[in-house]
Structures are given as C-alpha cells and as structure tokens.
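A brief tutorial aside. Many learners find it easier to grasp structure tokens once they have seen a single protein encoded end to end. The record that follows does exactly this for SDR family oxidoreductase. Read the sequence first, then the structure, and try to relate runs of similar tokens to stretches of the chain.
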Amino acid sequence: MKAILVTGGGSGIGRAVAQRFAAEGWRVGLADIDQRGLAATAALLPRDRTSTHQMDVRDPAEWEHVLADFAAISDGRLDVLFNNAGVAAGGAFGEIGIEALDRVIDVNFRGVAYGARLAYPYLRATPGSCLLNTASASAIYGSSGLAAYSATKFAVRGLTEALDGEWAREGIRVRSLMPGFIDTALLSAPVAGSNRTAREAVVAAGLEFTPVEAVADQAWAAVQGDRLHTLVGPTARRLAFAARWLPGRLRRSMRRRVMR
C-alpha cells in the first residue's frame, strides 16, 4: 500500500490533500503541531489507514521521530512526503515583529528543508517516491505586503528546483505546488500595522480564493505527472503570465499595493 506523510495535516490544504490520497486507497500519516486539528482530520479518514503524529517541523529531532514511527507503520514506505506546513505574516515589512519574522522563516523554510533532508533516506528507499513541497504564487514574483512569506516561498521554490536536479538520478521526483489565495486558517493572521486579517485584505483587494479541493486535485496530479511547479488557481496563473510577459506592469503594481 502506498503511503503519504502530510505536514500541516490538521487543517486547510493538508487536510484536503490527505482526504484526496485516502480516497485513492493510500495510507496517510498526518503530522501537525495542533493535536485537535489532527484528530479532526483523522476523523474524516479511514481509521485502519490513518495515523497521527504531533510535531513541530522546526525541530529536527521531532522529524526523525515521526519519520521513524511512520515508516514502522507503513512497512518502510514513504511514497510521498507532502512538505506543507506553513504560516503567514502580512503587512509592511518594516512593521513586522522580529518574533513573527523568525517564525515565518523557521516554519516555512527551515521546516521544509529539515523535512526534505531527513526524509531523504526513506524516499530513496521507496521506488518512484516524490517530495512535494507547498510553495506559493508568491514565489513567482516577490509580493509587496507579503515580503517575509514571499521570501520563504522563493526559498522553497529554489530548494525544489535544486533537489529536482540532484535527486533525479536516484529516482526521487521533486515537485512544488504554487497556489494563489486559499481560504484557510493561514489567512486569519493579522496584517502587521493593521486591524485587518489577511483574509479581509484579500477580499478588499478584489482577489479570489481557490477551493482547497482544487489544490488537492492538483497535488494528486503533481505526484502523478512530470511538471516541476504546478500553478493552482487564477491568481497564480495571472501572476505567472505577468511575470513573464508584463514585468514592468507587475513591478508598478507591486509598488502601488498596500495591504492595510
């Protein structure tokens, strides 16, 4: 039985992807720092093919423990590591707190890098395995008002591209998802220097949300296919078009954007 370990599995994209792969008959390991979220997701999945693992992705020792526990349950298989856990921080970069800045960097990139590095032996031992990282449309062009978040997602994009080159000869496929705005708990985060949440800022800007189910379908397609980066949603596709064909206009747009 094929097996996927999903970080950030307690809610949002992680929950939707766990449901999608479970529906395909896979064994699913759910990892998250939120024990209540883990239990809520697990209640939606087949009990005999689901395990939960409370962890903080910023701690390499916890990664080692969870990977070993999941491998013991899955007969050593790790067909997919879905490196998905992430946090958001919006608003003016000059007003973001240092503690919030550290958290975004540590969860969004350090946690992803730890996951990739420590899962490597398990992926290498599983024929046809895949490392799937959640990047973002903010990794297409640096997004004003989301500077810290955007920077970490560019780092995830760079890691994905580098490991795609390094690990291809070992039979490990490396992919990323680049979703636009998804209406998940991440958007409940307050915007620095504002009374708004990130969700309210997106709505005020007239931008659309992409359903988590669409992201889950694209995650399945990414694991099955050969595309390195998968754009998800109209915002991501428009941003990619503008970055390639209208860079001057996009630059001017970012200079005008104020998320307050």
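Self-check: The domain at 3-256 is CATH 3.40.50.720 (Rossmann fold). If you spotted this yourself, you are ready for the next section.
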